[in-house]
Amino acid sequence: MSLFSWKRTLVAGRTAQYGTIGHGHPVLFLHGWALAHHAYRDTLRPLADLGCQVFAPALPGFGGTQDLPHRQFGLPGYGAWTDEFCAAVAMTEPAIVIGHSFGGGVGIQLAASVPSRVGSLVLLNSIGGKWDQGHLMAERPLWRWGLALPSDVLGAGLSKAVPALLEDAVLNIVRNPRGVYRVATLARRADLDTELRTVRRRGTPVTVVHANADAFVPKSSFDSLCAVLGARGSVVRGSHSWPIGDAEGFAEIIGPIVATARAAGEAVA
């Protein structure tokens, strides 16, 4: 069985933590809000068996990676940081970029601003869409977000993933409560229609996945993402954090995407 290597590098002169596993076609995995690279290790490990090298950075403010400088804080700053991270780990070919939740928003930003980094994009319960009838997610009442937490953790079979969630989330909240709050506010306010249209215009392959019991990112947001991208999308069983609780389901969805991307890369070579 392949094992993750936990490493440290410098991105723009600041410490960044990341995990990596496997060899072959590059996969860049961008984690969700309040989490980091450790929580997804069981989910990502099978990708190494598909002939991929997975890079899973802890995004700025999480998992021991230093915050973005104040003037760079925002999704464009996260996109630029991710580009610099790829350079720091010597990623030289376009990657399969997989973003979960907040990481999906970062992936969209990266694909729009640095298209050479992204061979294909996979959005899992991603931020960046509209809440309801065209309203921004920031207009969603805060009490609805509060109600989402227990249903997400206790429902849809996610209870077995609680230790993995707590491993990252509790440490992040203890280490950097202000940063966790700032990123939550950033995620709520994200409106990525312009970036999504840019990604669509360039013809970047995009897969959009939503979970039927997601109480954090409502289906209306998934529908709006699909509409702007012109993508059909797919719905799986589970809660917002299903990629952590359903490694087999994750592999079933990602496996064909990886195979297609590898074949395309081999054809170009």
CATH superfamily: Alpha/Beta hydrolase fold, catalytic domain
Tell me the domain tally.
1
- Rg is 17 Å
| Helical content band | 40-55%
Order of helices and strands: EEEHEHEHEHHHHEHEHH
Distance between the termini: 29 Å
Shape: globular
Write up what this structure looks like.
The protein is of the alpha/beta class and 269 residues long. It has one domain: Alpha/Beta hydrolase fold, catalytic domain (Rossmann fold, 3-Layer(aba) Sandwich), CATH 3.40.50.1820. 45% of the residues lie in helices and 19% in strands. It contains ten helices and eight strands. An eight-stranded mixed beta sheet has the order 1-2-4-3-5-6-7-8, with helices on both faces. Strand 3, helix 1 and strand 4 form a beta-alpha-beta unit. The longest helix has 22 residues.
Concise description?
By secondary structure, the protein is α/β, with parallel strands linked by helices. It is built from 10 helices and 8 strands.
Write the layout of secondary structure elements.
Layout: E1 5-11, E2 14-22, E3 25-30, H1 41-48, E4 52-57, H2 75-88, E5 95-100, H3 102-113, E6 118-124, H4 142-154, H5 162-175, H6 177-189, H7 193-202, E7 206-211, H8 219-229, E8 234-236, H9 242-245, H10 247-268
Helix pairs in contact: 1-10, 2-3, 3-7, 5-6
